[in-house]
């Protein structure tokens, strides 16, 4: 069995398990860059926040 391995970023907000990838991303750095216009943010030390948590003020 083989499973496609693709990078995803996971939200580090409280009680949030949102995760997202991107078709053209080869690394998590690509995902962060490509998803930033969608509202995803990366905080120092590599914490990622989904648009919902970002708007909720979990920074
Ligand atoms: Zn979240």
Give the helix/strand layout.
Elements: E1 8-10, E2 19-21, H1 28-35, E3 41-43, E4 47-49, H2 51-55
Bound molecules: zinc ion (ZN).
Zinc ion binds at residues 11, 13, 16, 18, 50, 52-53.
How much strand content do the residues show?
Answer: 15-25%
**Oligomeric category:** single chain
**How do the helices and strands follow one another from N- to C-terminus?**
EEHEEH
End-to-end C-alpha gap: 39 Å
Poorly predicted regions are none
The total of helices stands at 2
Helix/strand-derived category reads alpha+beta
Total strand segments? 4
Overall shape: globular
Q: Strands of the biggest beta sheet: in what spatial order?
A: 1-2
- Compute the gyration radius: what is it? 12 Å
- Total tally of structural domains: 1
Distinct ligands, ions and cofactors found in the model: zinc ion
Helix content: 10-25%
Mean pLDDT: 93
Largest sheet, in brief, is: 2 strands, antiparallel
């Amino acid at each position: 069995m083989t499973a496609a391995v693709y990078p995803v970023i996971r939200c580090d907000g409280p009680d949030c398990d949102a995760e997202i990838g991107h078709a053209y991303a080869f690394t998590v750095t690509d995902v962060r860059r490509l998803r930033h216009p969608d509202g995803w943010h990366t905080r120092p030390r590599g914490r990622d926040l989904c648009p919902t948590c970002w708007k909720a003020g979990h920074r």
